[in-house]
Amino acid sequence: MNEDDPLRILMVEDVPEDAELAERELRKDGLRFATVRVDTKEGFLKALEEFRPEMIIPDYAMPEFDGMEALKLSLAHDPQLPFILFTGSMNEETAVACMKAGASDYIIKERMARLPAAVRGALEQRKIRIEKEERERELLAIYENAPLIMLLMDGERRLHKVNGFAAEFTGRPADAMRLMRCGEALRCLNALASPAGCGFGEQCEQCIIRRRVLETLANGKDRHPAEGSLWLGSTGQEEKMSFLLSTAKLDFGSQPLVLVTLLDITRRKQAEEALKESETLLNETQAISKVGGWAYDLRKKRITWTEEVYRIYGVGKSYDPNDIGNNIRLYSGEDRLIIEQAFTNAVQTGEPYDLELRFNAADGVQKWVRTIGKPVFEEGKITKVMGNIIDITKRKEKEKALRETEENFRRSLDDSPMGVRIVSEKGETLYVNKAALDIFGCDSIEEWRAIPTMKRYTEQSYAKYKIRREKRRLGEDDTTEYEIDIVRKGGEVRRLQVWRKGILWNGGNNYQVIYRDVTDIRNAREELGWTLERLRKAYSATIQVMVSAVETRDPYTAGHQIRSSDLARAIAKEIGLPQEKIDGIRMAASIHDIGKLSVPAEILSKPTKLSDIEFSLIKEHAHRGFEILREVESPWPLAEMVYQHHERMDGSGYPRNLKGDAILIESRILAVADVVEAMASHRPYRPALGIDKALEEIEKNSGTIYDKTVAGACLRLFREKSFKLEEARI
After folding, report:
1. Bridge partner list, 515
2. What DSSP designation does 181 have?
3. 20 to 30 A from 119, CA-CA: which of 63, 394, 595, 604?
4. pTM of full prediction above 0.70
5. Is 391 strand, coil or helix?
6. Is pLDDT of 189 > 90?
């Protein structure tokens, strides 16, 4: 209601003069309002919906519709709607009954002057109630949506209420945890092991929840958060939960309760533990990798070392690192001048450095070190220079050994049967062995270099080469093994398998590229593919011969198998089976009745109902089909598909009464396609029932006799995608 809008008052009064008197009294008090008067139940209900009153003033006693009945209807419509009874007389008992029933107030007509105050009072009460309910809803929303566990429990630690987060955490409905013990609800492992079903027994004397709840109840004071932990178990696994716990005593009626809040800090604690482990690991790693860290503070003129720097310098902890001149004098000869200038530039101009220098440690050990310095700027000024010093002596020794063996390696490459090429990071060819020259049809490395890269590749392979080259330029990971098509000097195209890896060559980082001619292998693969395709066609022709044999024996079902096959293939596509399975379904469906070759022709074409014996012979065709096909080599389980095509999801099929997942998905599809085609087509013993009857059968028994997914796909094909049996062949 807008404060500027007049108050809508519904008067329930059978005496118009009394209603006018009430309105006059309200206007005298300055109230702005609009009224509607009714004196019947029907009029009252209609006014509730259409007039939407904000206040109801009914006469207590009327001939056909009294005030108490109006009160019941009003409460059902809106419990907050102010309701003031207006009556000629009322005793004390009646007045109390009205107020208990939900009336806001009552006014005796002889004391009409009290009506405006009663109206204002009822409106104020309604406003207070609405504001209270809104606050309660807000508090409840905060309670339910707070991202922490909130438990309201008594002295026995039984839960009286839990919030939504607690229910989500425990995986139990909130109502199911009512009066459950705290430890049982949280699945505390100690609690679950207790005979009482909840801990806080002898083995849980130190439980922080138990202790804080008892202390809070005893002292009657809120407790500040404290850290604690519980071992929780769920589905056989256990997990240590760390949390912040706080408690507050609340008085509800005669029983004091404690509000317990648990904030999960497990991840934070794990992160803190991981940080400690990382710091320990860093110190150990520095010692293992021989990497030391240092920092020079320009404002304090002070240098700080990590422990590893002392070890690299070969000095004890008593050594003063702040004598920078002493530190520099440990470097060898001309390297001393290099590090001095580099450090000076870093301090004065902010130029970083990364150098590998010879070093004579104070303990007399000669070393190689990698020294790195990087300035730190604050508000545009250099305030620190930080860096690392790394003992690279072993690496340098290995590099020397590698250089000494490099010549032997080069000679071995010359005689390799594989094509080998050494390439710089810029793509320059540094070395090519004889095998690589022969593969590309070149006589010398000079001739190789003279041929542009674009001319050595086919157009498609050159495009791929440019992509690889760009990735390497950007520092992205590149494939180390791939195939290319090259054009030899005479124009012949060959397929090469290529391996590329980084190596040390002539003291620098370069790449070794190995070539293997796989042209003949590729051609053999293509020939194999053609052979497989011919075999597939031959297999299809064999299947077609089987189809013709069945249809010759049973002319009345001519075309049944092929129509069933097309429908089965369409269903398989509809449910998203892979192409390999779709091909198998098409083959199996084309010969699913091959077992009828063993059934007498007079039974197959009998125009009347079959006897039990005759029908049992017909039912045997699924097993006979299995016997015929089980020795046939095939990429699909054709024999088993045919064997199962009369099985049903509920086990009512034949011949083995399989059910559910025991039936191949291919056979479930074939079963639906077989039934639809058979019912829709003519048979010797009955005319065609039509496609509508067939689809009704599938829909009625979907999920029981027929696979629900398969049945749904079949129904969609016919009802939504205009599939027709006679148009099925593609």
Report:
1. 419, 498
2. B
3. 63
4. no
5. strand
6. no
From its phi and psi, is residue 172 left (phi > 0), alpha (psi between -120 and 50) or beta? beta
Residues facing residue 514 across a β-bridge: 420, 499
Report which of 26, 275, 60, 260 is spatially closest to residue 166, judged by C-alpha positions.
260
Who contacts 400 (Cβ-Cβ below 8 Å, separation ≥6)? none
What digits encode the pLDDT tens for the residues 655-674?
Answer: 999 999 999 999 999 999 99
CB contact burial 538-550 (16+ within 10 A = b; e otherwise): eeeeebeebbeeb
170 is written with which tokens?
């425990």
Per-residue pLDDT tens over the stretch 523-578: 777 775 565 556 566 556 566 666 666 666 666 555 787 888 899 999 999 999 99
- Beta-carbon contacts of 466 under 8 Å, excluding residues fewer than 6 positions away, are none
153 pLDDT above the threshold of 70:
yes
Cis peptide upstream of residue 635 (ω within 30 degrees of 0): no
Tens-place pLDDT, residues 574-613:
999 999 899 889 888 888 888 877 777 667 667 677 777 7
pLDDT score, position 697:
92
Q: pLDDT at position 173, please?
A: 87
The number of beta carbons lying within 10 Å of the beta carbon of residue 270 is 12
- pLDDT value for 199: 41
Residues 344-401: pLDDT tens digits?
999 999 999 999 999 888 888 888 989 999 999 988 899 999 999 988 888 888 877 7
Q: Residue 214: CA atoms inside 13 Å, Cβ hemisphere, count?
A: 9
Report the b/e string of 79-109 with b at 16+ CB within 10 A: eebbbbbbbeebeeeebeebeeeebbbbbbb
> Whose CA is closest to 561, among 522, 598, 531, 588?
588
Q: Which of 440, 438, 407, 410 is nearest to 422 (CA)?
A: 410
Tell me how far CA of residue 77 lies from CA of 71, 80, 389, 487, in angstroms. Answer: 10, 9, 83, 90
Per-residue H/E/C for 669-704? HHHHHHHHHHHHCCECCECCCCHHHHHHHHHHCECC
3-state secondary structure 251-317: EECCEEEEEEEEEECHHHHHHHHHHHHHHHHHHHHHHHHCEEEEEEECCCCEEEECHHHHHHHCCCC
Q: What are phi and psi of 372, to 5 degrees?
A: -125, 135
The amino acid that residue 543 corresponds to is: I
